[in-house]
Amino acid sequence: MEYKMIAPEHSEQVMEHLRRNFFADEPLNKAAGLCQNGSSCPALEAHCAEAIQHRMSVMAVDAKEKDTLKIVGVVLNGILKPGDTAKALSKLDCNDDADFRKIFDLLHRHNLKHNLFEHFDVDCMFDVRILSVDSCYRGQGIANELVKRSVAVAKKNGFRLLKADATGIFSQKIFRSHGFEVFSEQPYSKYTDENGKVILPVEAPHIKLQQLYKAICADDQDEKKQSL
Asked: What terms describe the molecular function in GO for this protein (predicted)?
C-alpha cells in the first residue's frame, strides 16, 4: 500500500471512491437516506471538494495496480477557523437537499454549542472530516495509517489542535487509539424534533456522535520539524 497527499487533480477519483464506499454507508448518511450506493450527492461532494482544496488530505493507493490509480482509502482534512461553522450553518437554509440539512444541522449546532476554539484559545484547527476505506480492503490497518499520517500532516503544518466529528463506533475507536480525546457527545436517540421524534434513526452499534480532539504541544512540533 502506498500513501499519498491528495491534490485537486485527484478530486474525481476520490469522489468515485466515496460514492462506492462512504456516501451511502456512513451512519448519518444511511439514517437520513441521503443517497444510494454508487450514486452522486452534489451537496456532500461540494463539502468534500472544499476539504480537498486545502491540500491536507491523504489517500491510500493499491501499489499492485501499476497501470491505474486505485484509491482504496481516503481521509479528507480541512482547515477550520473561528466563524466558519456559523457561516456553514447559515448557508444550510439555501441548500435544497433536506437530508443533507438534517445531518449538517446536527454537526454544526453541536460544534457551536461545544466550542473548541473558545476552550483551547486557538485561531485555527486541523479538521479531520471524512475517513473512508474500500469495503474490500478493510481490516488491513488502512484507516489507522490514514489517521496517523493526518496527525503528521497537522504537526508538519504547525497546528496546535486537531478535531474530528466521529459519527460511528469504528471511527471513534480509531481516533481514540491515536490519542484523540472526547470533548463532547450527542446521543442520536436524543436528537429529536419538536414532537419528540428522532430526526436521524441511526442503526446500532452506532449510538452517538463524538466530537474528539487531539492537542499538539510545541515540543511535538519542534521535534517533528527537526526530523524533516
From this structure: aralkylamine N-acetyltransferase activity; N-acetyltransferase activity
**Sheet of strand 2-5: strand arrangement:** 2-5, 58-61, 71-80, 125-133, 161-166, 208-215, 181-187
The total number of structural domains in the chain stands at 1
CATH of the domain at 197: 3.40.630.30
Question: Which range marks the domain in which residue 214 is found?
Answer: 2-227
Q: What angle do CA 40, 12, 129 make, to 5 degrees?
A: 75
In tens, the pLDDT along 146-164 reads: 999 999 999 999 999 999 9
pTM score, whole prediction: 0.92
Q: How far apart are CA 81 and CA 48, in angstroms?
A: 17
Q: Which phi and psi angles does 133 have, rounded to 5°? A: -130, 140
